Amino acid sequence: MPELPEVESIKRTLEPILIGRTIEHVEILLPRIIKWPSPEAFQAILAGKKITFLSRRGKYLLFYLDEDYIMVVHLRMTGRLYYTEDNAKQDRFARILFFFDNGTMLQYADARTLGTIYLFPANELGRITGLSTMGPEPLSPDFTMAYFKDSIKIRKGNIKALLLNQRFVGGLGNIYVDESLAVAEINPLRSAASLTDAEIEKLFSAVNKVIADGIEHRGTSFRDYRDGIGKKGAHQNYLRVYGRKGQPCEKCGTSIVKMEVAGRGTHYCPNCQR
DNA sequence: CGCTCGGCCTGTGCGC
DNA sequence: TGCGCACAGGCCGAGC
């Protein structure tokens, strides 16, 4: 579900509310969401901990706590994380509830229950492989044209699968990959190695633009996504191809086509993207 | 090592 | 209207 712009929006909305707040106790409605440590230890460690700051890496959201602990949340497909003033107002899909010392709470809700939460001492963060192997993310200093170009040229497989690979670039998901390829006018099935320098350059700026726009619009609420205070984003109103099957391409009027690439529903304009 | 694909879960929405 | 079946914003691990 949430990709980089959505997780960033959740972080930005939660930050001003949660920093300095103390967790009083945690209620675990679905234990298997907690991947580490045990549910009992998770509750015991968090009780009385203060949130010092929030951070994000790719699609992971990190809560820094006092005494050098870090709680890491990954929302996967349908996870939601939002603050509720009235701690009796439970989400229909509530899985983990974090109660604060002032009668408010943070809810982790998740319809498909694929999301994951970890709690580690800060120096053990490397045990989350998805975090430690993640490539540079769009708009960051280490996401350079040289890296992008050199990596793409030596990869096997199609460009869509590569853009979805978090070890190559961190934070892109199905929506923003389809959108990036649309902006760059590249067919999702093209093999990465076949892209010309000009195409790679166009794709590089497209990825950065699409992610920047997504953040500016506070994420894409295609279906489930809500930010840290339960509000929808606006980027669904700016999508060029994702979810627009059968509708006209805004550049040329050709019907947007949906097909399967890299095991994912893939939207593109068959005229503009070749 | 790199790449592809199935599995994990459950709700929703589309087509018949 | 009701029902069944694909499909869903992601990632890990097995197998090649």
Write the layout of secondary structure elements.
Elements: H1 4-18, E1 23-28, E2 34-36, H2 39-46, E3 51-57, E4 60-65, E5 69-74, E6 79-84, E7 94-100, E8 105-110, E9 116-121, H3 129-132, H4 145-153, H5 159-164, H6 174-183, H7 197-216, E10 257-261, E11 264-268
Parallel strand pairs: 2-9
Antiparallel strand pairs: 1-7, 3-4, 4-5, 5-9, 6-8, 7-8, 10-11
The structure holds a DNA duplex (16 and 16 nucleotides).
Please sum up the structure shown:
The protein has helices at 4-18, 39-46, 129-132, 145-153, 159-164, 174-183, 197-216; strands at 23-28, 34-36, 51-57, 60-65, 69-74, 79-84, 94-100, 105-110, 116-121, 257-261, 264-268. It has 274 residues and is of the alpha+beta class. The strands form three sheets. The chain has a five-stranded mixed beta sheet, covered by helices on one side.
What does this structure look like?
With about 270 residues, the protein is of the alpha+beta class. The strands form 3 sheets. Strands 2-9-5-4-3 form a 5-stranded mixed β-sheet, covered by helices on one side. It has a 4-stranded antiparallel β-sheet with strand order 1-7-8-6. A two-stranded antiparallel sheet has the order 10-11. Strand 4 and strand 5 form a beta hairpin. Helix 1 runs parallel beside helix 7 and helix 4 crosses helix 7. The protein is globular. It starts with a helix and ends in a 6-residue tail after the last strand. The mean pLDDT is about 95. The structure holds a DNA duplex (16 and 16 nucleotides).
